Inverse folding.
């Protein structure tokens, strides 16, 4: 009886045991079956014991077999020897692993075995990223991602669905690892030496990079198997196999096995599977490590920001833009460099192996081709360098364009009112032109690079074949030519990638340099004073906190000082024995330069009292607060904090700062929510009316620049002072420090600090100053007792707030309407009737936006679309024709045009994505067509493969889009958190909330990293499956070629070569489809924006018909004017008729929502004038082109807006004025001396938003800007809200003088500004109810203007007595009586208001 593993009956020796049983091959084979008996006990309770016995016996039996093979001279040339040797190694490794498990777990021979617990992460049900915990097969194929990706087709992926990251991948873990590696480099001998970031990165993340490199080595080595296997298949067609016999057993040699075409086909399949598996594993490890590095760097940068010296920000050494670049660009550059790191040491291996194999195949002639590649490599590198330089220039132009566009959007109202749109648009278009030029240059070099990448292997092959023909007098064989061509393509790939890697390496070097400089920048100092001595010396920058309410609000309030009496509820003057909250002795502070900003500061802040700091613009009031908080650098002096005050400080900066969070979160600011206290704060700040307007109340998310909350409204000054500061804070014995330039507050101050030119002018109570500094007191009294200095009425104050609330409401209405229109458009595109069932959802989410894509393509012109499609088809047709001709001539050609798609596909722009998509698609279609034409049997297997590919791409695209959206949506809050932290740094440090903000940053970073990791895992999921699908296509094509008995070996090689092409490009078809689908969303938004209706700048009159001197007189006729903000809204002005004489000074006032601000906008045709007209100097403004109208009028807005550039540019962007005129305007605005002191004078730098000037100075620049234009009509809309009273008084006189012969229309938010007006227009509910001079209207007791003025007079009184029939009913301060809603005084005021 014949036994398959022993031989046959013809060889009796096979059964002989005369020489010993171990010398009998049959017995040795049977012996190797013994260990498998133990597998019958696989259900044994203690499984590891069975496995241990199995591995030991298997290792022993296989070792005996290998020993006997060697004894009978069976070597590595025989297949069975090689297989047995591999099994010995495998069983030995498995046995060693099992022994180690027993040792670690203390099993078998140990008395107390360790209990196996699942990893801590798996005990947390919130951890959904399971890649580190699943088995090896699931790791390799990402099988654990199946539920998520397939589930996305039914329901969108949300944040809660992807859960949390494992502990080892969280930002805090990696930050601590990187920080330890960074700090360990500091030595006691040289503590100031900057640690190396490169060394820190290597120590913290070097191991996973080495693991990834190992995977990459294996993948690259297996990559050579493809061309060699196909060459072997071509060569083996028609050859015969032979076997050898040793001690009666038939053996096949390894060489004979590798010459079998069927075996080679299987080996090719296995090599492709393993190669792609290792390659994807390498990609995953590098991406995971890169993400971990990015999270650690973000945490390190954030911690540095929280310790950053304030002078760095204020002096411009470290701008918000630089910090944003560090966060958004530099960390990503390092992450991408880490992604490409394995290529640095994998590329040399590819090159060396490729050259060795070429020399083995073709001999010395192959070196000629390699030399061609080496010689042409510098050309490719030069092109890559040009690409990098061009890309850098393009990025600079793009950043400049975005900056200018952002400034335009922020100041769009001012630009429109001043008719400066064209100036700023021209600037943006000029920058865009430079950007487009750079983009065209970049496209040229990109095309040249792709051409060189395709041409270099062709030139190398041509040189090699020619040299081979001369040396050997014959051309290479088909298998040699095919293998050589494939290997040359493999050689070109690393050389092409070299330029990319070098480019990213250079960027990484620059990023590390910037990061190092940032980490070494000045810090605020330590917090040791908080825990120890209450005195601190400011030899270095220190950080201070205290139990002090530091309020920096500049709000108007009118109080009379004639009858001032010091309150007796508590002592005002702190003595030496009294408790002092803060004390500064001999202080001298600076913002980082050698010049002191504050000098000779000796002040004390009494505990539990209200201290006010006053002074003119630029005297150092705000700087004094920051000096006490430790934000300024101290040149000399000491600051003392009391023990009970230093641990609790609240700080409200002059410039509003809000978080991207809900209203409630902005108010509570991390404090525990107390409903009663929360409501009291809302009432004290009068926020409830604004909250009621929001769509979700106080749960509405607002932004850091949200208009309704951008600044404290003027109308809240009285309410905030009475309810917020005097009642809510002072009654609770809080220490309050209020910085203000409104002297009317002083009546409430317990302690006053007057400042001038960076020094303390006077300190004490108001009574002290009245006694000891009569001149200063009289100066204050003069300012406060001006004839026109009465308390503005609440109703006028409310009008501005109401306008803002109306604007907010309109914004919400328009937003809702827009959303509704967008939803309708989307429904029309997707489904006419949308149901909530699963099938409709599936169709909608898996639909590719071909319509939007066509809109994008057609925007470039139909000819360009035709040219692009035609050139692509022609290119691939020529490629197929050449390949077919080469297959007939030399029998094969492989991997024609094997371009590296990853480089172009890494770009997020649409053109590279489209180019990559079309190239990959046409290559795959060409390959399938060639294979099918050569071996029609392939068509049978094509159908199931196509079905599999369809479902893979269908599931992936939906999941990828969701994960991409999650990545984008989680990245924005992270970047905003960095930005808002840098802007609110002083507030965060004052509140001592650094730890809370750090925790928030870590949460946002982990959330973004989770989405990014899942997106990366989804990409690996796709690529593994498409790679395996491509391997199946190669196996199918090889099998069909072998079994179809093709006589042309060249055609077989051609078919298999194209099958390999499918493997390379199949996944990129899906990836690019998914990317294109995401990018088309941006096209859709742009298209929607372009379809938005814009203003009609063209008028019925031509510009030439308007006199150049118009308006020359300033005469204004308003005839039956009706105005609305939108056709869907009600009119805000109804049938208004008025006449304003040339040069007249006119005031406009009215009740809440009366329409006075709408009238100011109507002068500039900014609102819809749907009936009536405004005639200025005989011309109807509606007939004028908007540019002409707005360029001839002047307006001063309440909010100061400055643009980055120079002072000259901000005053005269049209460049039409002389320097003398500009200096004259600055002198009028009280800015001449300050500007002269600046470096460059008129050309001095203005930073973004004018941040290098105070708010008051910015408003003065805006006043100067209006003076420069010198129009005959000036509109003033609360233009002096941000400047001190002394400056305001001067400016009021200046305006009256500079515009004495011009028409001035003042939108009155203060009655004092229009009491002497030659004409006052009083509005009520959009109707003009009164029109006369101010004095005349006051004489009419029943007039609305008179009623409003009487209310003002009463509200400014120190005491109100309400009588009825000789009896005193009410007696108290007006603000106290107003709180009694049921009182008679309150009812009187409400009736008049």
């Amino acid at each position: 009886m014949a036994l398959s593993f022993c031989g046959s009956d013809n060889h009796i020796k096979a059964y002989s045991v005369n020489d010993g049983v171990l010398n009998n091959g049959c017995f040795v084979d049977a012996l190797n079956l013994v260990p498998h008996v133990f597998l019958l006990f696989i259900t044994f309770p203690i499984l590891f014991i069975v496995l241990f016995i199995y591995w030991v016996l298997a290792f022993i039996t296989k070792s005996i077999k290998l020993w006997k093979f060697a004894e009978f001279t069976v070597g590595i040339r025989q297949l069975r020897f090689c297989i047995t040797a591999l099994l010995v190694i495998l069983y030995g490794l498995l046995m060693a692993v099992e022994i180690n498990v027993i040792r670690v777990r203390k099993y078998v021979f140990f008395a107390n075995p360790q209990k196996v617990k699942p990893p801590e992460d798996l005990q947390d049900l919130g951890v959904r990223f399971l890649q580190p915990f699943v088995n090896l097969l699931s790791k390799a194929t990402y099988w654990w991602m199946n539920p998520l990706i397939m589930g996305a087709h039914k329901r969108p992926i949300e944040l809660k669905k992807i859960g949390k990251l494992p502990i080892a991948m969280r930002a805090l873990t990696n930050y601590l690892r990187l920080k330890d590696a960074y700090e360990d480099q500091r030595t006691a001998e040289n503590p100031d030496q900057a640690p190396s970031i490169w060394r820190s990165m290597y120590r913290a993340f070097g191991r996973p990079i080495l693991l990834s490199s190992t995977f990459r080595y294996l993948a690259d080595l297996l990559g050579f198997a493809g061309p060699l296997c196909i060459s072997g298949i071509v060569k083996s067609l028609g050859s015969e196999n032979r076997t050898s016999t040793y001690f009666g057993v038939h053996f096949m040699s390894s060489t004979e096995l590798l010459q079998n075409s069927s075996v080679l086909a299987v080996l090719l399949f296995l090599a492709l599977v393993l190669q792609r598996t290792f390659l994807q594993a390498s990609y995953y490890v590098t991406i995971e490590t890169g993400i971990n590095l990015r999270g650690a760097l973000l945490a390190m940068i954030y911690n540095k920001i929280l310790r950053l010296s304030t002078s760095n920000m204020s002096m411009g050494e470290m701008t918000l833009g630089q910090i944003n670049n560090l966060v958004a660009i530099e960390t990503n550059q390092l992450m991408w460099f880490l992604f490409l790191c394995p290529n640095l040491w994998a590329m040399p291996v590819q090159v060396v192996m490729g050259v060795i194999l070429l020399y083995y195949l073709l001999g010395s002639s192959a070196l000629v081709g390699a030399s061609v590649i080496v010689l042409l490599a510098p050309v490719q590198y030069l092109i890559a360098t040009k690409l990098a330089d061009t890309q850098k220039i393009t990025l600079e132009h793009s950043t400049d364009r975005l900056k200018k566009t952002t400034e335009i959007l922020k100041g769009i109202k001012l630009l429109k009112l001043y008719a400066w749109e064209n100036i700023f648009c021209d600037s943006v278009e000029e920058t865009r032109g430079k950007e487009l030029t750079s983009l065209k240059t970049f496209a040229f070099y990109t095309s040249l690079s792709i051409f060189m990448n395709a041409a270099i292997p062709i030139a190398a092959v041509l040189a090699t074949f020619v040299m081979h023909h001369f040396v050997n007098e014959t051309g290479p064989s088909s298998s040699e030519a095919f293998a050589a061509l494939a290997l040359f393509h493999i050689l070109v790939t690393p050389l092409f990638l070299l330029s990319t890697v070098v480019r990213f390496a250079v960027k990484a070097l620059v990023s590390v340099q910037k990061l190092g400089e940032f980490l070494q920048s000045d810090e605020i100092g330590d917090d040791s004073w908080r825990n120890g001595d209450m005195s601190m010396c400011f030899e270095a920058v220190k950080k201070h906190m205290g139990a002090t309410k530091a309020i920096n609000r500049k709000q108007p309030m009118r109080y009379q000082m004639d009858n001032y009496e010091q309150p007796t509820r508590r002592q005002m003057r702190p003595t030496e024995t009294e408790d002092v909250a803060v004390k500064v002795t001999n202080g001298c502070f600076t913002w980082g330069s050698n010049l002191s900003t504050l000098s000779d500061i000796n002040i004390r802040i009494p505990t539990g009292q209200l201290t006010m700091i006053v002074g003119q613009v630029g005297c150092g009031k705000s700087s004094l607060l920051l000096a006490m908080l430790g934000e300024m650098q101290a040149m000399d002096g000491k600051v003392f904090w009391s023990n009970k005050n230093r641990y609790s400080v609240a700080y409200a900066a002059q410039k509003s700062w809000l978080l991207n969070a809900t209203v409630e979160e902005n108010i509570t600011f991390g404090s525990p929510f107390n409903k009663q206290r929360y409501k009291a704060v809302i009432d004290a700040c009068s926020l409830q009316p604004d909250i009621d307007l929001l769509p979700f109340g106080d749960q509405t998310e607002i932004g850091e620049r949200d208009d309704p909350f951008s600044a404290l409204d003027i109308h809240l000054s009285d309410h905030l002072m009475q309810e917020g500061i005097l009642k809510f804070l002072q009654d609770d014995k809080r220490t309050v420090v209020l910085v203000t330039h409104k002297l009317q507050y002083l009546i409430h101050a317990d302690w006053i600090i007057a400042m001038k030119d960076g020094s303390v002018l006077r300190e004490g109570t108001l009574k002290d100053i009245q006694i000891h500094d009569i001149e200063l007191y009289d100066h204050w009294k003069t300012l406060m007792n001006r004839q026109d200095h009465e308390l503005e009425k609440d109703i006028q104050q409310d009008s501005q707030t109401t306008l803002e609330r109306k604007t907010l409401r309109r914004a919400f209405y328009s937003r809702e309407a827009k959303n509704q229109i967008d939803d309708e458009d989307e429904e029309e595109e997707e489904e006419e009737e949308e149901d909530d069932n699963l099938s409709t959802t599936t169709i909608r989410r898996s639909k590719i936006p071909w319509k939007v894509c066509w809109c994008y393509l057609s925007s470039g012109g139909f000819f360009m679309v035709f040219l692009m499609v035609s050139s692509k088809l022609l290119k691939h047709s020529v490629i197929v024709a050449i390949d077919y001709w080469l297959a007939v001539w030399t029998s094969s050609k492989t991997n024609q045009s094997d371009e590296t798609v990853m480089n172009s596909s890494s770009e997020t722009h649409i053109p590279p994505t489209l180019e990559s998509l079309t190239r990959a698609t046409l290559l795959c279609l060409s390959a399938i067509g060639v294979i099918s034409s050569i071996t029609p049997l392939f068509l049978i297997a094509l159908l199931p493969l196509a079905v599999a590919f369809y479902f893979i791409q269908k599931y992936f695209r939906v999941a990828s889009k969701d994960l991409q959206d999650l990545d984008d949506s989680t990245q924005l809050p992270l970047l905003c958190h960095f930005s808002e932290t840098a802007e609110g740094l002083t507030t965060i440090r004052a509140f001592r909330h650094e730890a809370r903000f750090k925790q928030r940053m870590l949460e946002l970073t982990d959330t973004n990293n989770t989405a990014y990791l899942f997106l990366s895992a989804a990409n690996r999921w796709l690529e593994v499956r498409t790679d395996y699908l491509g391997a199946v296509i190669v196996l199918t094509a090889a099998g069909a070629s072998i079994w179809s008995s093709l006589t042309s070996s060249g055609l077989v090689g051609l078919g298999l070569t194209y099958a390999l092409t499918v493997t390379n490009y199949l996944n990129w078809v899906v990836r690019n489809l998914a990317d294109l689908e995401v990018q088309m969303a941006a096209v859709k938004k742009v298209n929607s924006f372009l379809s938005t209706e814009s203003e009609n700048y063209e008028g019925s009159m031509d510009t030439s018909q308007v006199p150049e001197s118009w308006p020359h007189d300033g005469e204004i006729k308003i005839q039956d004017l009706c105005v609305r903000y939108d056709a869907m809204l009600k009119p805000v002005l109804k049938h208004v008729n008025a006449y304003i004489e040339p040069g007249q000074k006119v005031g406009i006032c009215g009740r809440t929502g009366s329409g006075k601000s709408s009238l100011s906008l109507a002068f500039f045709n900014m609102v819809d004038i749907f009936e009536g007209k405004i005639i200025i100097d005989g011309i109807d403004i509606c007939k004028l082109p908007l540019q002409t109208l707005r360029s001839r009028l002047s307006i001063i807005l309440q909010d100061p807006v400055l643009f980055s550039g120079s002072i000259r540019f901000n005053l005269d962007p049209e460049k039409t004025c002389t320097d003398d005129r500009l200096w004259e305007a600055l002198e009028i605005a009280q800015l001449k001396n300050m500007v002269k002191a600046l470096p460059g004078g008129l050309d001095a730098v203005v930073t973004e938003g004018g941040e290098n000037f105070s708010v008051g100075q910015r408003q003065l620049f805006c006043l100067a800007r209006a003076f420069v234009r010198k129009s005959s009509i000036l509109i003033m809309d609360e233009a002096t809200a941000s400047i001190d009273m002394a400056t305001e008084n001067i400016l009021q006189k200046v305006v009256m003088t500079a515009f004495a012969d011009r028409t001035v229309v003042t939108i009155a938010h203060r009655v004092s500004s229009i009491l002497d007006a030659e004409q006052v227009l009083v509005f009520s509910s959009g109707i003009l109810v009164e029109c006369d001079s101010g004095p005349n209207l006051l004489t009419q007791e029943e007039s609305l203007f008179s009623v409003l003025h009487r209310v003002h007079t009463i509200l400014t009184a120190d005491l109100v007595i309400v009588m009825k029939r000789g009896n005193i009913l009410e007696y108290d301060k007006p603000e106290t009586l107003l709180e009694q809603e049921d009182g008679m005084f309150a009812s009187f005021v409400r009736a008049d208001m």
Remarks:
- The first helix runs from residue 25 to 31.
- The two ends are 119 Å apart (CA to CA).
- The longest strand covers residues 580-590.
- The mean pLDDT is 77.
